[in-house]
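ARCHIVE CARD
Drawer: 12
Card no.: 0347
Subject: one protein chain, sequence and derived structure
Cross-reference: see card 0346
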Amino acid sequence: MPTKKKVVFGVFDWGLGHATRCKPLAQALLKAGCTVDFISTGRAIKVLKEHFGNRCEYHDVPSVTSPYTASEHFVLNFIINGPKMLKSLKRARAISKVIIEEGGYDLVISDCRYDVYGEEKRSYLINHQLRFAAPVGAEMFAEAWLAHRMGKYRKVIVPDYEGKDNLTGRLSHKLNFIKRRKIEYIGHISHIERKKCKKDIDYLISLTGPEPQRSLLEEMIFAQVRELEGSVIIAGGNPDTDKPKIPGNVTYHPYLGTEEMCDCLNRCKCFISRSGYTSMMELAEVGVREALLVPTPGQTEQVYLGKYYRKRGYFHSVKQKNLSLHADVKEAERGDGFSPEWDSRQSVKNFLSVVGV
């Protein structure tokens, strides 16, 4: 079977995590001689265009309507917006299906975009959340629904480890409905590489995730950042925002590209961010031990991961409404970090093996 294939890559757009973690995977496909077209939208497709430029083609297809609001009641909003979300998924599927059929792709790869799939034998899904963290009844129903959607793919590729020392906990282990043979655990993926350098940044604050909660956390950070002693770098996580007024010890960047983020993360002593899974994989890759996590309010996955990491002693986590930078960074010093079984380069090789490239 030839390795050079025509690939379409669907990338979810709720936050920038899916786009950033797909960079090394798409880069590896290109290096192997494949052609890569992207299906994405919003800030995610903007980041992909900035990184890959004219090496790839891009299809801007709106995805599932986001249920995020300023409220903490994510599950309730998710239920209320369910019909609207399903309608938007159906609309996205109608567009993506035409693109996939007319494109004549050898491989269809989707990072959490359930509208992007072709024939099962050539379709692959990347997802770290095979079970929603929710009340028992809702959790079982959601897991069954996800298992049904995942049935459209040949393999479900999980960027985590199968053993007890893992980053996702119950989100992708000990599942009820998805058959084990359908799952491939490839290890963590990071577009950030580990480097040996001087730790001369006291605090690196990354403000990522969907609106409006990203901006709400940003306001809280700006109100408290004066309490931090030492150098502070803030990555706004939104390439469309303007530079705000900030204290003299703070450097603000609307968005840090791969090289800039790699440099800052390797140099930082303490990392402050959401408990978004992509950020957690980056911490694992670089070997960051001190991290303060602020889960997006009501976002059940991040809330679960924050509690999971705190319980296992990896990182400190605190509710957004209880955030006290000065006190919480002290707690973050006690973290042990997460030690992965192998580095991201091996995970990328595992990914290529799974998809047959």
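Annotation on reverse: The radius of gyration is 20 Å. The longest helix spans residues 82-103.
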